[in-house]
């Protein structure tokens, strides 16, 4: 089965840029989606189709995907961005799909 | 506005059957291509997709859970139900239901707040 690898944690100072990576074999051939999860809450979609933002997600959030790595970039980081971020891809076939999640990256705002 | 809310027993004994309900608003299974999924998260661990049901009652399950999990829907009530048989302590997790807007949009637009289920004797 397909595996997505994320760094366990990323620390960033307020106002700086956080980059969260997600690695997978030929990941650039897939569409990557990202979720933000704050303590005690359900995940929130923050990026889909690699680099599309849902309505209501700040422009500070951007995404890219190439080769074996996808990246979620948060510019001008704010305290409210502190959360766990998960990447996700769809794998398998129409008859047997698999929604695969990465292990999650905890973003700490210093 | 789309909302989903999970409900079910907080504590289940090993070998029992777990039944969870997801009640949603803001969309309907009368709309083509919508789907609802169940995803779980063991304490301190990552998300794990379990099952998905489409507007036309077509269902998909993750292979590892196929023999233990069944997902059904009640269109008039705007609900989906997950049944998991023969539960074990490793099934302890927060269970989420999530909305998928269209076939081909292989992500989850909106999630519920989750319900924590503990499997223990």
Question: What this model shows, in words?
Answer:
- The complex is a heterodimer of chains A (110) and B (121).
- Helix content of chain A is 0%, strand content 46%.
- By secondary structure, chain A is mainly beta.
- The relative contact order of chain A is 0.33.
- Chain B has 121 residues and is mainly β.
- In chain B, 0% of the residues lie in helices and 49% in strands.
- Chain B is built from no helices and 11 strands.
- Chain B has strands at 3-7, 11-12, 18-25, 35-41, 48-54, 59-61, 69-74, 79-84, 93-100, 110-111, 115-119.
- In chain B, strands 2, 4, 5, 6, 9, 10 and 11 form a 7-stranded mixed sheet that branches. Chain B has a 4-stranded antiparallel sheet with strand order 1-3-8-7, with no helix packed on it.
- The model of chain B has no long low-confidence stretch (mean pLDDT 95).
- Chain A binds chain B through residues 31, 33, 35, 41-45, 48, 54, 86, 88, 90, 96-104, and chain B through 37, 39, 46-49, 52, 60, 62-63, 96, 98, 105-114.
Order of helices and strands of chain B: EEEEEEEEEEE
Q: Strand-residue fraction of chain B?
A: over 45%
Low-confidence stretches of chain A: none
Mean pLDDT of chain A: 96
Number of helices of chain B: 0
- The 3D shape of chain B can be described as globular
Number of DSSP E strands of chain A:
9
Taken as a percent bin, the fraction of beta residues of chain A is over 45%
**Quaternary structure state of the chains depicted:** heterodimer
Structural class of chain B: mainly beta
Mean pLDDT of chain B: 95
Q: Which tags fit this structure?
A:
heterodimer, A: 110 residues, mainly beta, 6-stranded mixed sheet, 3-stranded antiparallel sheet, 9 strands, 0% helix, B: 121 residues, 7-stranded mixed sheet, 4-stranded antiparallel sheet, globular
